[in-house]
Queue: 2 jobs
Job 1
Amino acid sequence: MLVVMETAAPKEAVDNVCRLIEQMGLTAHPMPGAQRTAIGVTGNKSQVDADRILTQPGVREIIHVTKPYKLVSREFYPDNSVVDVGGVKVGGKEFIVMAGPCSVESREQTLVVADAVCKAGAKILRGGAYKPRTSPYSFQGLKEEGLKILAEAREKYGLKIVTEAIDTDTIEMVADYADIVQIGARNMQNYSLLRKAGRLSTPVLLKRGLSATVEELLMSAEYIMAEGNRDVILCERGVRTFADHTRNTLDLSAIPFVKKASHLPIISDPSHGTGRKDKVLPLSRASMAVGADGLLIEVHNDPANALSDGPQALTPDMFDEMMVELRAMAPVLGRTME
Amino acid sequence: MLVVMETAAPKEAVDNVCRLIEQMGLTAHPMPGAQRTAIGVTGNKSQVDADRILTQPGVREIIHVTKPYKLVSREFYPDNSVVDVGGVKVGGKEFIVMAGPCSVESREQTLVVADAVCKAGAKILRGGAYKPRTSPYSFQGLKEEGLKILAEAREKYGLKIVTEAIDTDTIEMVADYADIVQIGARNMQNYSLLRKAGRLSTPVLLKRGLSATVEELLMSAEYIMAEGNRDVILCERGVRTFADHTRNTLDLSAIPFVKKASHLPIISDPSHGTGRKDKVLPLSRASMAVGADGLLIEVHNDPANALSDGPQALTPDMFDEMMVELRAMAPVLGRTME
Amino acid sequence: MLVVMETAAPKEAVDNVCRLIEQMGLTAHPMPGAQRTAIGVTGNKSQVDADRILTQPGVREIIHVTKPYKLVSREFYPDNSVVDVGGVKVGGKEFIVMAGPCSVESREQTLVVADAVCKAGAKILRGGAYKPRTSPYSFQGLKEEGLKILAEAREKYGLKIVTEAIDTDTIEMVADYADIVQIGARNMQNYSLLRKAGRLSTPVLLKRGLSATVEELLMSAEYIMAEGNRDVILCERGVRTFADHTRNTLDLSAIPFVKKASHLPIISDPSHGTGRKDKVLPLSRASMAVGADGLLIEVHNDPANALSDGPQALTPDMFDEMMVELRAMAPVLGRTME
Amino acid sequence: MLVVMETAAPKEAVDNVCRLIEQMGLTAHPMPGAQRTAIGVTGNKSQVDADRILTQPGVREIIHVTKPYKLVSREFYPDNSVVDVGGVKVGGKEFIVMAGPCSVESREQTLVVADAVCKAGAKILRGGAYKPRTSPYSFQGLKEEGLKILAEAREKYGLKIVTEAIDTDTIEMVADYADIVQIGARNMQNYSLLRKAGRLSTPVLLKRGLSATVEELLMSAEYIMAEGNRDVILCERGVRTFADHTRNTLDLSAIPFVKKASHLPIISDPSHGTGRKDKVLPLSRASMAVGADGLLIEVHNDPANALSDGPQALTPDMFDEMMVELRAMAPVLGRTME
């Protein structure tokens, strides 16, 4: 249920309605917008006494939401949510590029790549310290040592950091270092992890699962928001289909769908979405053109010897070329890139 | 097998090699390129006496092609093929938009839509006279009457015409009227129809099947080219996956893949690819950005009452807006649009 | 629309209703059942004057069918349809095995295999004379020569013959030789071919397309039945999914679904459905257990040198073992096998 | 790498080889078989000094395993693994049925269902106390209270219990109550959870993920076994495809594939695999026929009012009918059912 307040409703009126909602055993989620405040109501399994709320001062109308997601819905919050990552704003006019190696393999590799992507114009450094790998015998990441290397790169190049948390035991430590905590595709429906991410004060990057519908992606974001963390960035990263010319099938239509259904920002990951470096540049352009708020790109200084996902990593030179092309496209599409 | 001639090889040398190939019981496909001529050899089930060819004057090298497709391969013909549709060039620098109703429903509807798409800048009018429908009880098209209406629209607005042929009995009649004969997704592996299309002198638009791999699409184009028709335009139109927010999943990564593997032009059909009109505009932009040579777009003056596929048809106003946006993007992407 | 007659309604009453339906510009399809006759009505695009029919003598009720398929629906014809193939009854109590080589490669190979499958208990010999192949350079079948070889095998071993027709130009010739004309997966939505199959007096085996829903399969059967041919046998042969341990994913749940929705018989093709000979035996058992009316099995005397689909062909010994196992299972599942 | 011992090799020889492997910094997994002992070696990222091992007394040969999975491989352990669940043996000759409600909703409901499935012949009671739900607002299970109810049912009816663990925080508590700890489809690649399951002494039921290949399923089992827990039971429960007549597509070919590639037992879950109660019975028969070691079936005394997954739950009567049919089939397929 969604309570829509009058345009002129004062803060006291909003607080009053929230108090009433809580008294009814429900949870109130006030969402201040540019025009008016809406108050999301969750916890109502059955019919709620909506009349009691409707008669409160400052209440304009009550919308009974039928979609399974509420807090992530654009009906709840009609403006675009802009997630502020220590000053870097994801979901606004600026097109944000996050780039870096798949895994943090060593201090030297990370700093070399960080330097390169920073110079090319990336704002956020990606890199995995905890790696979910199909095989128990594959490289599983440098763990906390990797997080420290990322922090050093942040210090040195003024980049923000996005890195993945893979379980409830370590997510808090990851959040201590990261500017954005990533929930990977394999964990998109790991609800315990989502709930814990919802209790962080760090923004969360939530990747679409390999066979998740867009509605399931939004429901997983709902898990995070329902715990109180509103800073959720979604990510389309390709789905599994019969098509075999790419590793996954990047489903770009998901981006305008999410933009219409939800207020949350969404970025695109053409590196995982295609799994082939020569497809990353064209799909990056297409991602910007379709309306994504940014990109997540794998860059490696020595892809042939990468410990994971080498075939999809751009070299710094290829990344540079990509940024040049995107910068030329941005103004035509109403976006900015520094 | 591919015979690559010297840069300076005269026409006589090429003719000589072709003659020899034919004497060996094989078929020669000379492909004159900007730099040199290559001669595709088909019909060789087993090992061919390559040495005899290699010793002919003007022959530089012989490449044993291991890919299952030959004539469609970029190894056979390194430049981009440009298909000339009565002066409208598909596959060149210009980005070509084909637009019109799903079905030709009446003379009036067709002329109204033709007028609108022509004014907005489309070069080719699409419209189905023969409709492959899932149900035998659905509207099956106006047949030859529909072709005549399309021809009248061509006359009146100076547009070229693309329309679908659905069987071997009627493809020749369709080709009598059409500037491009379309082979639809359901017929992508109707090999008898492909062979007959290969004997036409009209360009062919070949749509990817609903669950066809890109390699299978190229193999179907090979069927057409093997019969002698080199004017093949490919079309990505979405594949069937589990994703349910769009009718099909438009697989834009197929476009750069085809561009690398083949010399043939490829366009995108975001109308069928998404099945939802509000997704057509963003996916059209993305199609141009990813490298497509053009678009196939459904436009209807009254989508609510369309006899087929109304939910995915743009109104003339929406189409106009799309063309304005594409025209702004084109120069940044190295394309032209009049 | 379905007109249900009284149990005791005489033939004259049925004829009278059919005449009236035809006078209304519609088509009547009388379906005599064990209990009563139902008359399917097709051709009604809009509301029909049902009252006029309801008041005729012998009419019990009128059912407005909302499903997109009519003639194939179990609502139209509540009993199981049994397709009589020259005395071999498909869809009855007997579990019917059709077996033979993928392609008719030579007279000798065909007779050797026919002999083997006949001895093991197959009732119908399969073998392709016209082969739809992904590549134009692959073996395309022996064509009419192949049909003659099949006819000779029929003569010699008393088997019936099922063989594929791939286009409208040759389907009649195929029907001249075949006891069952097969429409392959790639042609499931080749509507011109379906219509022509509908005008044959030969039974038709219709295979599910690689990415066809079960409803689309039923709609394609509707095309055949709408033309007057009621002898349609459906076939589940695997669909295309991401799973890569088999060539296709045999969707056995389609079989009980079809059995409930339709009166038509349905068989299973585990050879194409798995593409791997060591999976054919277990999936054959599962097909019988799930309720299929029979099997279509590839058997080759020398799989390693088969001109097509060798990896999925059973040897005669493996086929024999399969038949022994099925024969043991049949009585438990209420089926018979000679 | 796999070290195969001589048939007659004494325990001392095995211990000696294990000691040597550990000295080399690797991990030894002795697998005593009926014929001989094999010793799996894991931890070897690069080439190992195999010669040193080969020269030890009692060693017959060394097999370099190229498949990505090792401990789960049938090459490591050629016999069928039989998982002993407190006397109920999964993977042996007996066909084991696990049945019960999707969720433990109340003490009364659970006891009623337990009574019914016990009488019908089920050996293991299923029931979710922790429920992974797509929506944060759906019923999430009774948690420990639910586990206590299951334990009471075990006491009362002599059934074993299988119930799901959804995170690393609660898996140990679940294991305190359960006879088998289930890892659900959504958590198949939750590697932290798999590792913790690998350190339990309780058998684990690992369900295939919605879009997991069979190889990925085996790799996830490898995570569990690599931690020391060898009692892993696999479960095919349907994959996500375009087919819409069932909720998922039950991929029965996975079962013979797993049986060949691995020594682990595998059961089938036609309740989730089809999502429709009227498909459960035919697919249960097919699962037995294809070679599954057992079934996981949802049964509810009042499906219309179930808090989760009502449409796929059998009534006790339907379950009873299913058991009667399976009991009739079992001897023909070489299985036993009490």
Job 2
Amino acid sequence: MKFFSDNTATACPEMLAAIAAANRGPARAYGDDEWTLRLDAAFSEHFGTAVRAFAVTTGTAANSLALATLSPPYGAIFAHHEAHIAVDECGAPGFFSGGAQLALLPGEHGRLDADTVGTALENHPRHLHSVQPAALSLTQATELGTVYRPAEVARLAGLAHRAGLKVHMDGARFANALTFLGCHPGDLTWRAGVDVLSFGATKNGALTAEAVVFFDPECVRDFELRRKRAGHLLSKSRYVAAQLLAYLETGVWKRNAERTNALARRIGAAAGATLLHPVEANEVFVRLGVARRQALRAAGFDFYDWGAEAAGEVRLVVSWDQPEADVQALCAALARL
Amino acid sequence: MKFFSDNTATACPEMLAAIAAANRGPARAYGDDEWTLRLDAAFSEHFGTAVRAFAVTTGTAANSLALATLSPPYGAIFAHHEAHIAVDECGAPGFFSGGAQLALLPGEHGRLDADTVGTALENHPRHLHSVQPAALSLTQATELGTVYRPAEVARLAGLAHRAGLKVHMDGARFANALTFLGCHPGDLTWRAGVDVLSFGATKNGALTAEAVVFFDPECVRDFELRRKRAGHLLSKSRYVAAQLLAYLETGVWKRNAERTNALARRIGAAAGATLLHPVEANEVFVRLGVARRQALRAAGFDFYDWGAEAAGEVRLVVSWDQPEADVQALCAALARL
Amino acid sequence: MKFFSDNTATACPEMLAAIAAANRGPARAYGDDEWTLRLDAAFSEHFGTAVRAFAVTTGTAANSLALATLSPPYGAIFAHHEAHIAVDECGAPGFFSGGAQLALLPGEHGRLDADTVGTALENHPRHLHSVQPAALSLTQATELGTVYRPAEVARLAGLAHRAGLKVHMDGARFANALTFLGCHPGDLTWRAGVDVLSFGATKNGALTAEAVVFFDPECVRDFELRRKRAGHLLSKSRYVAAQLLAYLETGVWKRNAERTNALARRIGAAAGATLLHPVEANEVFVRLGVARRQALRAAGFDFYDWGAEAAGEVRLVVSWDQPEADVQALCAALARL
Amino acid sequence: MKFFSDNTATACPEMLAAIAAANRGPARAYGDDEWTLRLDAAFSEHFGTAVRAFAVTTGTAANSLALATLSPPYGAIFAHHEAHIAVDECGAPGFFSGGAQLALLPGEHGRLDADTVGTALENHPRHLHSVQPAALSLTQATELGTVYRPAEVARLAGLAHRAGLKVHMDGARFANALTFLGCHPGDLTWRAGVDVLSFGATKNGALTAEAVVFFDPECVRDFELRRKRAGHLLSKSRYVAAQLLAYLETGVWKRNAERTNALARRIGAAAGATLLHPVEANEVFVRLGVARRQALRAAGFDFYDWGAEAAGEVRLVVSWDQPEADVQALCAALARL
């Protein structure tokens, strides 16, 4: 039973159906097809405001292309030290931006707090000898499966804006965060001050589809050129666009996120005192210790270790297509341990 | 009736079937799935030698990632002045390599010849004030729908190697070239001295699938890190890998290329004296003049102009799913004009 | 007798005197010293308008830092195909800009003409698949020792501005051009539409001192950060600034340029029919043929070959400290040949 | 009385004399002059082994060019979190390397220790999702005026080499460290495992002269091309080379460093309990508190604050040309406070 990652999942049927439906007749290449041309409207509808939305195929591309439009080569990008852009993208922000530097900050449960960010922005030098504060990147849901409340996003974005930075949100698991909070997508983004969002769908049921959503159109032309130049403008764009449209329009984003959030909560409850972070999305982090971790593996569960080897901490991720029986078995096993 | 580009086509049924077949159960992310792990063997079988093959989603990514492994930031990449990397990728080679410069050369019918390349390599300075010759990039089939013979590739690659350069082949339409020549894939690549190949499938029936094929394993680790860093390592890699496997293993590469080559030849024959370049792949270039061009459009044919506006030149591309009736109608219309 | 380059010359006494005079007491580092702080005023006085001026130590740094402020990474920089930025700086513009591409144009006697530039700008695509026209770079005096007239600069700059490009001037030999024309420095620059100038002094008597002069302050902050980041902000900036101040304020720029221009004209006259380009600065290009070239070397003259080996063309450069006897001897030798 | 920085100092007479002596007759440009051609021999003599040495004009250029030869664009460079490359060079390592990331580590008194480095290297992931450990950069003397012992350098370099990293030393104040230790230059560098050294002279009496010294010739060609491309190859190279030769050959490096070290020790002794770090070079760090700091300024002393404003910490730097009376007065003032 596999709890490795939501990346190991299949694509949900709505995605394959959308691809099959788009597979009719010729369509203009490089995004001038009817599916891609509908993205702006579909995302504007979803977010309750006029946005520009662009399809890409990976979260790394979404994050780094977005950040490269916000930061000059001599910029500093503030982020949590466990952020995906810091530890899992092989330095992609530095590549796409031409050398911008990450300014990494601590924060409990994977979340940045206003004190830490405020102090960091205040103390960061602005003279010529230093990289220049350019962007704040928030991960929603965070790498530790927790979720920023709208007021927290607004407070952090406010600090960033007042200091002259733009705000990026890495929403690889945006649907999980949104579902957990039960709020409007706009409340978590543009109403709270987010300038550009990496909107993930792949981890929540798509084959391979992510969007970059601009709430501020200023950087759009720059983005489009950078995307092309980075090989992320697809010639047959319709197949990714169709996935994104189906993701939004069939409500699969919500259905899948509700399911994985609920299953993760059950695991969290079963984990009891070993739980490391509140379960607010589809990830559960527990400290088992080395022996119990080994016992869990021996019982047929697959997952990644997390943090230092000796601590015996693990990450358990629920995928949209996770059999409920897997979760039941896992809960039982955790209760036994 | 659309003759814009082979990028406007649908995906062929084998591709959707392959994706559906791969959509079963969990699979390790980021290329550790069974489909991706079979790429090396499948491409080694195809090319008749041990190769390393990697999936990406665009030709720009394939070309630029390959070139970035061959050229230092201060390198010069020699290519035809109409090459896709020179005119259609928004400077991608410069981005991926950290600033390598293109050294663009002329050549009849889109092909570089040995005299031009030999002279250019000989005359290019090697001192510190100049970018350093690093790679030769050949497009097969060329941007003008012509094809290098194996002996031509071997001669050009020999010149490059003797001068210390590596050889890249942009094979966005490799299947068309191969089918036209009727030779073994190895004859056009490693036996002729090609070091790395951008192997295209998207233009010939895939949804979105390209491969980078290394005949020399030396650059593979560098490539893998650059690919990840550029956001071109897919988390759900299986869906692209499955396309590439089906493309090779069902023979769809050959079937589609044979069809489009044959249809293009018919158009070429109908074009008669207006034909600009030999028709050796699925593209036909004709000089109609402005009036006849307009007449052809008025008759219901869509296509791109080529070259300077006033010359009245056009490009006609046959897609794998082009209705035969389109081609018949086009031939008739060309004959009438 | 050496006619290699004006880079082989010594520094003139005014420069060493300026350095010695600046070598008194502590001074704030990184350009906050009294000499550097006077640069804006001194260059504003020279150019007859308010400018911002910055010291660097090489022409490559001046050119590339200036161009990087004018061109995005996906920009195209239009220049003569023999421009120093194209052939003598190891791809520096690509490095500093993050991958901008040079669009190289022909032009008689090293000069671009309005027809060529106008056509190139008109034909350059603006769509996403192409690098975007960003800057026009003019070399004054050109690499072939010729000089643009103010009206020519104005016409070219007008074309560039109307097409949305900024205008850079590589003035490594600006003093020679200015002296040849006898016009006001403003006539050749801001009044003619130049946005930023690489102002050379090293070739004309300085130890090592170049300036970047902004006629439009918009890019200045970007420039300052790029300069620091590239290691071109000197900690003991005063010693370069003092050279630039002395260069302008003692009139040494004019005295040296008048001398070298006059001596070059004498050589040009002696060259007679072998002269390849009008002599308008301190460089003379002659076609001797291989035999006479060898004879000239045998007679004790050192110089660089130019162009293809077999043509027997040479470049003869007069330095500010060139003994007049060298020139007399050279004229005599040329007359004899 | 100014204790801002050793960058605010003048150049010492030996430097101006060397420049004047080099200012005779024509010399080949771009480093083919007799002074530059002697650098390898002079530095080889100094270090007691065959080295390659290259002149540049700033410490930022020396550090970043060196690091760019050691780290691929996807590399991680390990350094102390207060290192000059981390906080004072506007992200230069990221620019020169094409996006390498700094991995910053803590360490008492500005020094890295073997435990911290060993653990960091051990824990750093090597998989494709992470930047790859490439180089360790040590600052000698450190930013806090302390000095690594040869055995410490050897231990750290050993850890780095065993983990596949190369070792860079930022020796902006190398002479101060060497003088403090009284050891042979080779003991602090190649015998201890340093691969490339940024050898500073500017802070210790030169006008503007730094060297990059390679103990391993492997990266030299790459370095030379990167230097040219970055605008750091001087056309009139002789004037910087002459400074470096005089710096080594007249013993001015030792005389100046001995003087500033001794004066700094006197200040350190006067500082007594307020001293923050051992005084092992020409810098003294003291915690005065806000009130006493203000009093010291009021008494006519200029210096930079260090660290957080409220802590009242200051840095006092002794320059080679610091009047002894300044130091006497400062010691008296510190004793009074």
